[in-house]
Amino acid sequence: MSKAGENIRELATQRRTDAYKKIGIAVITGLAPVILLLLRLPAGIAVLAWVGCWGVAYVYFNKGQHLLLRARQADQGAVAEENVAELLKPLELQGWKIEYNVVLEYGDADAFLQAPNGECFVIDTKSNKGSVFYDGAVLKLRYGKQVYEFGNGKNILKAVKGQARALREMKRVNFVQPILCFTQARMEEIDQNNKIDNVYVLDTANLLRVITSL
Prior knowledge:
Layout: H1 6-39, H2 43-93, E1 97-103, E2 108-114, E3 120-126, E4 131-134, E5 139-143, E6 146-149, H3 156-171, E7 176-182, E8 186-187, E9 200-203, H4 204-213
Parallel strand pairs: 3-7, 4-8, 7-9
Antiparallel strand pairs: 1-2, 2-3, 4-5, 5-6
């Protein structure tokens, strides 16, 4: 059985490996003009070759840096999933069935829970920082005075509801309650005891309390 955070850690490793490859290409390409000095090419051709090599090196270096950033983000997400799994351990001792990284037709579900009484939940873990608020249609993030959308406009409420529907069919159960759990962000005017568009939006401090009360 897959462990919490396992898939996203593998993704982080893959991104980091690809990043080092691109940075390696950038270094090699950037140093290539040194060889041109030995060839004694005409000045015009040499200049074009230097500019071309450095241009390619610049592009690959930037791609590598971007992948390293994405790898760090994936690591952050893995830590968040592992922290949530740690919070859920007491439930396993009480007879709850918990699966992590459940593969769906599109993507995967971070955690699927089934209580001894048959109630089912899916938890989508989010490691974003800042403040989470609901604007009446979608959840958004606030950093200081700046407001950001999730994943370039992704409706994460709709996404986790899609996971719940997929799991309901896969597990052949009557209902799966979707939950968004934020491990670092603050809740801004969000009542964690009530659903937003049929989804519970929670922080880690309230996760167990709300789940066990349903």
